[in-house]
Amino acid sequence: xxxxxxxxxxxxxxxxxxTCYNQWYFKTHPEEYKQAGLKWRSNNKEKLRNxxxxxxxxxxxxEFRERLSKQDGLCAxxxxxxxxxxxHNHATGKIRGILCNTCNRGLGLFKDNRSVLDNAIRYLKNxx
Length: 128
Hints:
About 55% of the residues lie in helices and about 5% in strands. By secondary structure, the protein is mostly helical. The chain has 2 domains: about 1-45, no CATH class; about 45-125, His-Me finger endonuclease fold (3-Layer(aba) Sandwich), CATH 3.40.1800. The protein has a two-stranded antiparallel sheet. The longest helix has 14 residues, at about 30-45. It is elongated, with a radius of gyration of 24 Å. It starts with 17 loop residues before the first helix and ends with a helix.
């Protein structure tokens, strides 16, 4: 059966094609649509993580896990906390390692600037 909205497409429901029906459903049932999306995301965390890693860094979740395993599951800087954040050079995009949240944020707050980090180290040494 043809859809009334797009005669070249197959009828799904209410005389509409799948795309138009989904748009109609979203507009008329926003809370149900939102809950369904939340449920799907909750049930597909690994799929979403894999997609984000591929899109943002060009690696799979499996490759992330292999890198983390080589670090014994710990942060590449402090080795005290589990590694959770993929660190990369913002200029080149090259992956450097996997860091804990604190170390990742620390590098970000220092804007990955070596001279500022060297100054911070000297400061700490001089004020022990």
